[in-house]
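Dear colleagues,

I hope this message finds you well. In preparation for our joint manuscript, I am sending the Endo-1,4-beta-xylanase (Luteolibacter rhizosphaerae) sequence together with its predicted structure, so that both groups work from identical material. I would be grateful if you could confirm receipt.
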Amino acid sequence: MMRSLLLALALSSSALAEDSPWGIALGAEWSGDYPKFNPLLQEAGVTWVRYFPEWHSMQPEPGKWSFERADAFLASATAHKIRIAGGFWYAAPWSTTDGGTRRVPLKDMQHWRDYVKGMVTRYGKEVQWWEVWNEFNGSFSEGGTPAIYAELTREAYKTAKAINPEVKIGLSVANFDIGFLDATIKAGAADHFDYVCVHPYENLGALANGGERGYLSLAASLRQMLKANGQKEDTPLWITEFGVQSNIAPDEKADARQAEIFTRGYVLSLAQGFDKIFWFEARGPAYGKGTDHGILREDWSKRPVYDAYRTLTAELGVEPRYLGWLDLGGAFGFVFAKGQEHRLVAWANEEKAVKLGGKEVPLGRKPVFVADLPTETIALAKANAAKPFPWGKDYASVKSVSCQLGATNRDEGITQTSPETTSVVHGLDHSYRRADVAKGGESLYAYFRVDPTFVPFGTKELEVTVVAKRLPGGGNAGMNLTYESLSGYKGAGEWWSIPEGEGWQEHIWKLGDANFAGGWGWNFRTDAAGSGADFFIREVRVKKP
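The corresponding structure tokens are as follows:
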């Protein structure tokens, strides 16, 4: 009887929209509520859900399987025309030395092979996309290394393909950790994965401060990394988690911000070629700070981001086709095909009006959808599709880039990503910014991102210069540099004590293992933790030696 049900599900799921990008990632806390939220997800236009019961619940002991929970979950999703993006999640307690489900290495790799075999044998017809672990580079794998992850990936790939060659195996990392992906491929995962999954939460959050330029570099950076490792450049790219939080209680400003960033994030992801995009998550949970990511609140009321999801899927369709971009006088414009119809999605970081075919369209931070596009507008978007995105300059051929800090920063290839961590100070001739050590917390840091055209993947040797001076009348002041390297974020290892005096001083840190991909949304920061006094920052520069 159960095998008949699974056959019926396989036939039914094959009719679902394979090429649709609209996903929701579920957390374990609310996953059991799927009978209630699946109809709501279907109403919003969601066509994919990223979730599957963990190993320990599927195989409570060696040789013993418990399929009921997964069968019911799959049946409900299929009934609501939702496909499942699965995963081989974590470890079974009996497979680890201390009984933990987030610890590696496993006692016996054969246990892992048996688990993968059991999952693919039963569900490989209905669930054909499987990530290996979840955020192995983060807090979900104590003792994890690229070599261990490479072995898990390689064994999952070989085991799954032997059962069903159509099954796809995915690499997955927390944040946008290209360095870990690169190390995993080099450690033995090469040619043993079919797609790559990232979780660019911080890059998405940067859209609140005009971070479109950096966000639009994500797919290109991944493809550069794949090419450098001899992997297929057209490997499918998925975002299997991203999101921003809003307050648990209704909050007009926070809810509007969440919905705005949601739409921007999806559009920018589609425009650069991500195949599937999964918002985290359907409902809750709270994280102890009175906020959560859900498109539904804990009381099941719909947030504005839920309405934004429904609007986006209705406007662009089940399987939207990206046609190309439009530079609307500095505003952002992206054209999609919905069957035979066309839609422009556009917004601006400052209010302005643009003309389209004789019409004036007002733009602001909230994305708007424009139908009935002139033929010449559609043709222009198509002609732009293969061209680099136009927002910002191309710094590929210059030797150095800079950011002069002040009331209005002057960016020449470097952007201060979170200017609110520093305060503006007005001097006699110009303004600059202050690292307010006395406040502690984020005021100890000034964050920067270098234009991706200046630091493509593989750019390792860089010189970072900071121009600063002590606060008048202050005591000892200084800083270190934290930067994005091939092995993650790390300190540059050289503390700079800013010399005494009224004049501006500068210091150079030389880096030999840089990897400025924007893993957490920034490339380097000045770090005043341990400084005895405040200081001013006037300029930062990055140079290729």
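For the figure legend, we might mention the following. The two ends are 69 Å apart (CA to CA). Confidence is low (pLDDT under 50) at residues 10-14.

With kind regards,
E.M.
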